[in-house]
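Section 5.1 Outputs to date
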Amino acid sequence: MTATIGQGSSRTENGIQHLHFELHLPHPVEHVWLAVATARGLPQWLAAADVLQPRLGGAVVLRWLNQEGEAGVHEGRITAWDVERIAEYTLDSFHGRIRFHLEPDGPAGTTLRFTNEFPGDDQLRLDCLAGWHDHFEFLAEALSGHPADWSTWTPERWHRFRDVYASRG
């Protein structure tokens, strides 16, 4: 089984963007959990977890490693937490609510259902669809033993994803 990252889908409701992705990963749930719900796993594909209190109501501060300065730092709370099943972080308004829902997929795989809800316009929606798709590529690579090297990050792959999502409307 190889990693499959489905195209993200979205809808807008009352000024709130709702993004959805479904990933099929050839790794057991416990490995994917470590990547999406621990301070050690998150920087390998998404952001440094400067603070991560792993419990419902715990504080979380994520610092995106492909951005510089305060613009990449987002604070919030853990708003759902079910070990090896659901990790949900509700961050400041830019990133809003991000939810990782893990399910076993065969004997050694995982289905990851991801949702992101945030206020914003269509341009931000397209930016975030591309951004999450880009990060999910990094997740698949990190789970296969190749964590992101943020010092070499460029926006080129993000731009390609952004173009694809923009062409779909």
